[in-house]
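Deviation from plan, reported transparently: thiamine diphosphate complex.
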Amino acid sequence: MRKVYHRPEGLTDTLMRYCPGCGHGIIHRIIAELLVELNIRERTVGIAPVGCSVFADEYFNCDMIQPAHGRGPAVATGLKRANPDLIVFSYQGDGDLAAIGTAEIVHAAARNENFTVIFVNNAIYGMTGGQLAPTTLPNMVSTTTPRGRNTKLAGNPIRVCELLNSLDGPVYINRTSVHTPQWVLKTKKAIKRGFEIQMAKKGFALIEVLSMCPTNWRMSPIESSRWIEEVMSKYYELKLFRDLTKEEK
Amino acid sequence: MSERYLFRGNHAIAEGAMRAGCRFFAGYPITPQNEIPEYFSARMPDYGGVFLQTESEIAAINMLFGASAAGVRAMTTSSSPGISLMQEGISYSCGADLPMVIANVVRGGPGLGNIAPAQSDYFQATRGGGHGDYRTPVLAPNSVQEMFEFPKLAFELAERYRTPVIILADGLLGQMIEPLEYTFDPVDPKTLPKKDYILDGCKGRERRVIRSYDLRPGYLEKLNFERIKKYQKIEAEEVRYETDHLDDAEFVIIAYGTCSRVAKAAVRLARNNGVKMGLLRPITLWPFPKKMIEELTGKTRLFIVVEMSMGQMIEDVELVVKGKAPVRLIPHPGGGIPTAREIWERFQQFREEL
Ligand SMILES: Cc1ncc(C[n+]2csc(CCOP(=O)(O)OP(=O)(O)O)c2C)c(N)n1
Ligand code: SF4
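Because the crystal trials were delayed, the predicted structure below was used instead.
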């Protein structure tokens, strides 16, 4: 019998605590596969955020560190500058990266720090129970915008790729999604590119991944995927914003 | 080795840190300590280390979190408002048991306060400062020579106990220029023992995790009880202080840092006037020299606490003296520096009122 599915060596033998249909598990698996495929697992340090994926430090089978909410890019800077031989990735949610940690991500990108950021945008605060995120869409309901996000009161969403793309620093910026198998494959390609850029010591790569949070969107997993297809990806355009390594050629 | 140089305090602490093997500095400009990052930026390339001017003190302390996890001797410096911003990172570093050195060249507060020398961050430094049950050792230099030497001591303590260590200076110590002797050979970080907890890739070993959380019921309490043992050991073994004329003293001044320099002059003044005065200068503010104060309590007619704050260290003194002897305060909050004459005159008032 041929084994068609197995747990990649990049994941520990731990039961993941994500809700059914959650995008985090898919993205974890992609990263874990790449740690093995690129043969970097044994020299990688991963950074787990504060958010639903705080437990990423239990799930990835490599050295892991879990710092304060939003500070991943600063911690990554410290790790990588102190030991440039490491491969460092910072895994962050939208509250972590685009609200409390905005300064840290913008300045790490501006400095073109040589590490890889996987930015999981689910347009909501998952861990704390569905509050407004900096990426919550206009009119979208959250527990702190019960009548929908009124941009006059709650402000406008932040498009992180577009924001960072205004900087000279970053080498690679891409926005993908995991709502369909095709997009899962594209996300894997994008994250792989991010790691390769780091391995070649070329600099900062950020891959934003649109990701389902069925629990706090109050949708079924299938409805969640459809919502990304029909609504969320219209607001957050899925595209490669920048790959400076291509322009070099 | 015994060459002497004229050094500014802020330069001395930077040179001392790099000679002590510090190979990572991250910080954000703030007066009165700007000469420290400037000096690091000029000299760190020669030492083959990393210098980074950050976007904030929050970023700086978190870069130390990463650099320390990677195993290097890492340091940041700032002054009061910046140190407030670092409290989150210090708390996380204590929770993750990461060694690092943080120097606070204290200025007047609260708020933006002013840029004059002060000691008003005593509570913040000695009580932990951030959230959660933790302490950090606090070293209080009182000369340019000690500004040079304390980073080495701080790194040794930090690594021995896996904890952040605070050097609590003030604007005067930072700006003052004094002769300095290189009292130790430069430390080559490669010769330091390899740490068994750092993150350098899991090749040939189990993967490691550095974190400050444990959500499993009961576990955090266990962990914190373990950490308390570490603090008890520090309290038992790492108390440092200096004494001056204490043997026969009837009146004892307790002062640290800049104030201890002034207090020494006040003791001389008192002795010249035939008054048996002495000085206890805590060098570690935490752990606090409780035993020494306990011993003095039986034979001292009056304690005088001199501090450039509203009455912070005096609480630690009173906790030991427990009302068994009078304790009086000469406070200078917000930038004033006491003079020896002022201490002498206030002492005479205090004595009359006894
Ligand atoms: C300083 C601080 N403020 C607030 C929190 C509470 N908190 C934990 S997770 C979180 C939001 C996480 O949302 P996001 O980054 O979008 O990740 P998700 O859970 O959706 O994956 C917040 C506000 C915290 N842990 N620390
Ligand atoms: S709350 Fe949302 S983000 Fe968190 S695990 Fe559940 S589905 Fe995933």
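Chain B has a mean pLDDT of 97. We consider this an acceptable substitute for the interim report.
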